[in-house]
Design a protein that fits this description.
Blueprint (H helix, E strand, L loop, with lengths): L1 H22 L4 H19 L3 H25 L3 H22 L3 H22 L3
Helix pairs in contact: 1-2, 1-3, 2-3, 2-5, 3-4, 4-5
């Protein structure tokens, strides 16, 4: 039952992301998709579900590339670019550590990714 729920969440996130990617907008809905995908990946790492964790982490890489592009286009957002790039790197680290079945390192990368997201939100999240 839990795996079905995770699968539905991942599928919903993927479908939402596809629609958002087409619009190219990094807005509240887009960031909610990022957050949901992150939570799904983090949960999958916790239960050692390599397939879901990998798929979600790869999706996060794509999403954070859009965030980097957003901050580059916005201008005067060097910290946003750096934190978004770090998020891409951490997502990639999750993919490689999960592939190596090193779920402890994947969990550490996921925790660091969560902190990076929070730091970025503290600077850029609109009220």
């Amino acid at each position: 039952m839990y795996k079905k729920r995770l699968f539905r969440l991942a599928l919903t996130s993927l479908l939402a992301t596809t629609a958002l990617t087409a619009s190219g907008a990094v807005d509240e809905d887009f960031m909610r998709t990022v957050e949901d995908t992150f939570k799904s990946a983090d949960a999958a790492i916790g239960i050692k579900d390599a397939k879901t964790a990998t798929a979600d982490a790869k999706e996060l890489e794509k999403l954070f590339k859009e965030v980097v592009d957003h901050y580059v286009k916005k201008g005067d957002a060097e910290d946003g670019v750096k934190m978004s790039q770090k998020s891409i790197d951490l997502s990639a680290r999750i993919v490689t550590t999960v592939a190596a079945k090193d779920f402890d390192s994947a969990a550490a990368a996921s925790a660091e990714l969560g902190r990076t997201c929070k730091a970025c939100h503290n600077v850029y999240k609109q009220d």
